[in-house]
Amino acid sequence: MPPSLTPAITEIDSDWVGERLRLRAEVVPRGAKVDRVRFRYRGKRFKAKHHGGWRYSRMVKPRGKDEPGDEIRFKVTACTISDCTSRTGGGEDHS
Questions:
Q1: Which fold has domain 8-89?
Q2: Contact, 29 vs 7, CB < 8 A?
Q3: Structural domain boundaries of the chain?
Q4: How buried is residue 78: exposed, middle or buried, by Cβ count under 10 Å (0-12/13-18/19+)?
Q5: Strands of 84-92's sheet, edge to edge?
Q6: CA distance 87 to 17
Q7: What is the Cα–Cα distance from 17 to 5, expressed in whole angstroms?
Q8: CA–CA distance from 83 to each of 23, 72, 90 (Å)?
Q9: What does the pLDDT look like over 20-59, one tens digit per residue?
């Protein structure tokens, strides 16, 4: 069986910047260029912004009753032109 060409989502994290929440992911291409990365947080989908290398992030308004110190769970989907992979994870504010 040939190796998978879908991107590998190696890290998922979040942190607070003022009153906004930053969703972050590290996505490593495996054989094909990463075409798009999306975050799904509390039922809403956000297009990730690429920050060079393997880093992607997006600043969002917190939803529900999320506040600093809570564990923030969200899903990351990374796609090539033909295949996608997803992973759920999150982070917690440690300040």
A1: Immunoglobulin-like (2.60.40)
A2: yes
A3: 8-89
A4: buried
A5: 44-47, 36-41, 71-79, 84-92
A6: 24
A7: 34
A8: 22, 27, 23
A9: 999 999 999 998 899 999 999 999 999 999 999 999 999 9
